[in-house]
Structure formats: structure tokens, C-alpha cells
Specification:
By secondary structure, this protein is mostly beta strands. It contains no helices and 4 strands.
Length: 67
């Protein structure tokens, strides 16, 4: 299984707790494999663009289990 995600976050300075406007656009790509009743997902994410935000890059791993 392949998964591609895009995240966009923005804050209005009047609403944000910090009082600062910010925005950030990130993408994440993951691949998964079934193991019995569960699935292991491993992927990576990075920040494409942003203003007053942290430039992030990292790895993710998750375990999904069917009930």
C-alpha cells in the first residue's frame, strides 16, 4: 500500500495564542505492508513552504491493527 498526504496549516494572528500569523505546507509519503491482522507503515515528511513556521523533515512509523 502506498499513501501520499498533503497538510496545510494556517493561523490568523487574532486567533493564534502567540499572536503571530503563520502558515505551513507539508507533504508525507508512506508505504505499508500487511502482517497478519496488522499493517506496518513507514514513511517520510518534509515542509514545502511556510511563513513564521519551523522547517521540518523527518521519518514516521506506525502500526495499524484490525479489530
Amino acid at each position: 500500500m502506498l499513501l501520499a498526504q498533503s497538510f496545510y496549516i494556517t493561523a490568523d494572528p487574532d486567533i493564534a495564542r502567540t499572536g503571530r500569523e503563520f502558515s505551513q505546507h507539508k507533504i508525507q509519503f508512506s508505504a505499508g505492508r500487511n502482517f497478519g491482522r496488522g499493517r506496518l507503515m513507514i514513511g517520510a515528511f518534509t515542509t514545502l513552504a511556510g511563513r513564521n513556521a519551523i522547517d521540518e523533515t523527518g521519518l514516521v512509523a506506525s502500526w495499524w491493527r484490525s479489530f
